[in-house]
């Protein structure tokens, strides 16, 4: 009988589900990392919220563990790369607490506008300070929503019901979806300059960390109020403190903090700050939703092998798996390549399967392309949710198959159209198993994608390769392999350089500044 550990406070309904499905379950909350490491080897499944940290050390001790289920959305407390490496499936419940978290953001906005927590404390203290707590009305005010996915779009809908004007910054929000929601799609600078209230609903990624830093805060309207119910780290807390103390920011309502549990934070004690201890998802309804869902998903997986909402594993049958596996890797790389070089909203995606691959079950392949494409921007996207997420964002997905494939056994071509341009990337399997990029924007190339790559587009002029090599060498960056392609002599050229380690931003800037370089970018692949 499989055995599951519930190591965070989950609704008791989860335990009922496990027992009902014939799975042994232990509930042990508040374990230290050492205590968890000591017992994790006994379990096949682990059900968590945000308190348990599933680190590489915990996973190393988890000799029987097959699945980690997160009752919630964010999986920043799970080392997914380490789990993947150890073959542990990581699942989440992407929608179960979205309404509740959006409601918390709205509650925080009201709390800020009317200083309800401060007035409550003062009234309880018998002070009756009627003149101290002058509020502001929400009606007619501009709410800037940064990140208009599941939660952000619910916040936007609720705010429109409150007669606010809603503007949204989200590179993946299509103009059509913005119109459907009734929000104005704007760029970040515009949002920062125009908003009376700003609410954050993005995952914490390398692109969003410090999205509201000192410089962004300085450009906000005097008297702006900020709400963060997404992740600590999106706002620079020290810069926010300065702006609150100077009065430039009138107030901030924070559910999440750079360090959690937050016991000693620079913002604590400021009269203009309203805090809750990561309560965004804490309602009976949301906790039942996510607990039931995660228990069902873990049970299904342990008992039948069915995979739902996995962040690191494709949904395929046991028979299909061996044939699809190398194509999955290729598809993920094609998607990830296109996703990392895409800067503006996606309109359409076209995937062409040519040759042998056209005869396979291409649904998981298309889902893998979309997962790779969307992953640089969406935290919780997985193979199961990627097609739904893409559709919800109004991205048109076209898939074509043809047995005709003149130059390769199989070829997969991905074409991505954004608001600004169309790009394409093509790949094949060499030797039947090794993914290779064979064409980028119709320029032939032959490249293996490795964890750390430099991608550059340049004019095909003498001297470029030498100056690139010198620049990398001067930065102490070792080149592992070098792949070149060009449209025609003297025309547009590109290169993909595999390097031994993450590329420092200054090195990429130095390459971008070289003569004849049109664009250079560091790319990461798993
Ligand atoms: N306080 C709490 O208890 C809870 C917090 N959360 C957090 O809320 C966040 C959002 O959750 P969902 O809406 O479900 O996720 P989602 O994936 O549906 O939406 C995130 C949105 O952020 C956008 N985005 C990504 N990078 C961006 C960037 N650089 N600039 C602007 N927008 C960007 C994406 O395009 C996407 O539309 C997650 O970080 C999650 O962990 C979620 C549930 C509860
Ligand atoms: O489980 C919780 O209380 C936190 C929820 C959360 O942050 C999430 O789902 O991302």
TrEMBL record:
GO biological process: any one?
A: L-serine biosynthetic process
Report the EC number(s), separated by commas if there are several. Answer: 1.1.1.95
Q: Where is the D-isomer specific 2-hydroxyacid dehydrogenase NAD-binding domain?
A: 106-280
**Pathway where this protein functions:** Amino-acid biosynthesis; L-serine biosynthesis; L-serine from 3-phospho-D-glycerate: step 1/3
This entry's Gene Ontology molecular function terms read: NAD binding; phosphoglycerate dehydrogenase activity
Keywords from UniProt, A to Z, are: Amino-acid biosynthesis, NAD, Oxidoreductase, Serine biosynthesis
Signal peptide from the UniProt entry: none
Its family remark reads: Belongs to the D-isomer specific 2-hydroxyacid dehydrogenase family.
Protein's UniProt name: D-3-phosphoglycerate dehydrogenase
Query: To which species is this protein native?
Result: Roseospira goensis
């Amino acid at each position: 009988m499989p055995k599951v550990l519930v190591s965070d406070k989950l609704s008791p309904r989860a335990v009922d589900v496990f027992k009902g499905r014939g799975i042994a379950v232990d509930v042990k909350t508040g374990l230290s990392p050492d205590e968890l490491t000591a017992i994790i080897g006994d379990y096949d499944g682990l059900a968590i919220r945000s308190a348990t940290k599933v680190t590489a050390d915990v996973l190393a001790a988890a000799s029987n563990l097959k699945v980690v289920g997160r009752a919630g959305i964010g999986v920043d407390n799970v080392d997914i790369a380490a789990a993947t490496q150890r073959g542990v499936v990581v699942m989440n419940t992407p929608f179960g607490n979205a309404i509740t978290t959006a409601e918390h953001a709205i509650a925080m906005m009201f709390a800020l506008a009317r200083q309800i927590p401060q007035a409550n404390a003062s009234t309880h203290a018998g002070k009756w300070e009627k003149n101290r707590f002058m509020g502001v009305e929400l009606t007619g005010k501009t709410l800037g929503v940064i990140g208009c996915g599941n939660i952000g779009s619910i916040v936007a809908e609720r705010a429109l019901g409150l007669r606010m004007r809603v503007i949204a910054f989200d590179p993946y929000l299509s103009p059509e979806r913005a119109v459907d929601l009734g929000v104005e799609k704007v760029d970040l600078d515009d949002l920062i300059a125009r908003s009376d209230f700003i609410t954050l609903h993005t995952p914490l990624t390398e692109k969003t960390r410090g999205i509201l830093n000192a410089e962004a805060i300085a450009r906000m309207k005097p008297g702006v109020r900020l709400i963060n119910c997404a992740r600590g780290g999106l706002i620079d807390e020290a810069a926010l403190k300065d702006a609150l103390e100077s009065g430039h920011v009138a107030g901030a309502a924070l559910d999440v903090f750079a360090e959690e549990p937050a016991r000693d934070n620079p913002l604590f004690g400021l009269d203009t700050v309203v805090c809750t201890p990561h309560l965004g998802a804490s309602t009976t309804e949301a906790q039942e939703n996510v607990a039931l869902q995660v228990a069902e998903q873990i049970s299904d997986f342990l008992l039948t092998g069915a995979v739902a909402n996995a962040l690191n594993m494709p949904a395929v049958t046991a028979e299909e798996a061996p044939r699809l596996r190398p194509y999955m890797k290729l598809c993920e790389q094609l998607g990830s390549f296109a996703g990392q070089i895409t800067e503006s909203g996606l309109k359409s995606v076209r995937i062409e399967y040519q040759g042998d691959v056209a005869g396979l079950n291409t649904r998981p392949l298309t889902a893998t392309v979309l997962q790779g494409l969307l992953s640089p921007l969406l935290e919780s996207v997985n193979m199961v949710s990627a097609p739904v997420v893409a559709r919800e964002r109004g991205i048109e997905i076209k898939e074509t198959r043809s047995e005709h494939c003149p130059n390769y056994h199989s070829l997969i071509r991905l074409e991505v159209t954004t608001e600004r341009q169309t790009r394409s990337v093509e790949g094949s399997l060499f030797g039947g198993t090794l993914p290779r990029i064979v064409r980028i924007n119709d320029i032939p190339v032959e490249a293996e994608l490795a964890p750390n790559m430099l991608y550059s587009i340049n004019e095909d002029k003498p001297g470029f390769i030498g100056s690139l090599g010198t620049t990398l060498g001067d930065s102490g960056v070792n080149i592992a392999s070098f792949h070149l392609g060009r449209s025609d002599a003297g025309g547009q050229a590109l290169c993909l350089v595999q390097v031994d380690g993450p590329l420092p931003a200054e090195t990429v800037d130095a390459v971008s500044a070289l003569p004849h370089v049109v664009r250079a970018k560091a790319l990461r692949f798993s």
